[in-house]
Amino acid sequence: MDMKGKRYNMNSEGKGYCIDKEEKERSNLIELSFEEMEQFLQSLGQKKYRAKQVLRWIYKGATDIDDMTDIPKELREELKKVAYIGSVEPKEKYVSKDGTVKYLFALSDGNIIESVLMTYKYGLSICISSQVGCKMGCKFCASSVLGFIRNLTPGEMMEQVLAVQRDCQTPIGNITIMGIGEPLDNYENLVKFLKLANMPGGLNMSLRKINVSTCGLVPGILKLANEGLPVNLSISLHAPDDAKRMELMPIGKSYSLDKIIGACNIYTGKTRRRITFEYIMIDGFNDSREDALVLAGRIRGMLCHVNLIPANYVEGTRFKPSTREKMEVFENLLENNGISVTIRRELGKDIDAACGQLRRRVIEKEREKKEAEVEKK
């Protein structure tokens, strides 16, 4: 596979490596904050004001240093020797009947990730990945099936946003870090990305328009509460009690619901941001009237909202979505107990828009192709 003049190999697990390692020896300009960009340019003997020019081009969507036409050619030539503008490479794109767009991106090392663009009344929202694969092992998630490969850098997270903006030619107003991976398991890179997204002269997005989703890593929630970054936090809850949650999510063995809810209360107290509890509804497992009442008892009085989500079918699992009738009964019981709740609108179902589905399908197809080639030999 050829991207940007470099040659890549990909193995049957979707793990790739770049044969040309030149890029590793240069700085990715997308990784730099305003202050870091100033220092970087000063180290090249340039004035500080050049930082604003360079950043303006990057966040306008430039992918080549030569695109920066108001910067002297001498500086561009010098920059090309020591830096580059990172850019994920579009591999596949699918457009749903409802307007949802799913992107499969190739990274510079040949690994692949997903991003999803969704259209709402308030504008465009993107769901980005934070890792290649995931360690959490949630039973209902296609991302977990293929295991964990590596963390994404802050630049690789930002590259997803900029690549989709270039494609749709419209500014994205909201970011959700809920794609492949567990954001709080990639904590330092996550925080750097949040600061880059909020940076004046860059994306300049309000932190209140950014949502971080976690399966419930309590230390990460508490740490994030003290960062002074009032992003919205979503918790993948998916069960009303610890026993059922542990069946779905191995992380439940490390952090009980009481610990998670306690951390959420600390988070809302420090940030004044409402917590969203994501609740996948699985037929006959966590969708009974009793489940609704137990859940209501746990979170009543919290600054929170519940999203009820019909389970996606993931090959190899036994989970089926709850019926609409059961979901509406569940919704009404929560509302009657003073809980803010909605049934999430399903988007992109016809294009495998749920986290990890497309990546898994593509990697398994690559694997089958390689196995077939081996058998022919």
Helices and strands, with pairings:
Layout: E1 2-3, E2 6-10, E3 16-18, E4 27-28, H1 34-43, H2 50-60, H3 73-82, E5 83-84, E6 89-95, E7 101-106, E8 112-120, E9 123-128, E10 131-133, H4 142-145, E11 148-151, H5 154-168, E12 174-177, H6 187-198, E13 210-214, H7 218-225, E14 232-236, H8 242-248, H9 257-271, E15 275-281, H10 289-299, E16 304-310, H11 324-336, E17 341-343, H12 357-376
Parallel strand pairs: 4-5, 9-12, 12-13, 13-14, 14-15, 15-16, 16-17
Antiparallel strand pairs: 1-2, 2-3, 6-7, 7-8, 8-9, 10-11
In short:
The chain is an alpha/beta fold and 377 residues long. The chain has helices spanning 34-43, 50-60, 73-82, 142-145, 154-168, 187-198, 218-225, 242-248, 257-271, 289-299, 324-336, 357-376, and strands at residues 2-3, 6-10, 16-18, 27-28, 83-84, 89-95, 101-106, 112-120, 123-128, 131-133, 148-151, 174-177, 210-214, 232-236, 275-281, 304-310, 341-343.
